[in-house]
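Quick note —
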Amino acid sequence: MANDDIVARIEANPKYHELVRKRSSYSIIMSILMIIAYYGYILLIAFNKEWLGTPLAPGMVTTIGIPLGVGVIVFTIAITNVYVRKANSDFDDMSAEVIREANQK
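Predicted structure written out below.
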């Protein structure tokens, strides 16, 4: 019963709804960025193989596709880092505040 009361207070708190809204919209934006990066690369592979197979310089074995593929991986790591930092600072602080307020009443 005590847990149900705390859950009800959390759900009634406008800060909780703000947290959910911000976290959801941030997650959607980050997901869209990842989808663009991954599917953009896959679409390049599917529809422009010749360009991806072009050597970076005359006589080089490395093609344009290699640094682009590495770029997708680096972008994935970077965007994950950005999300984790945001979650560990802003979202965790907001969540702790909502829980603290629910426990005070």
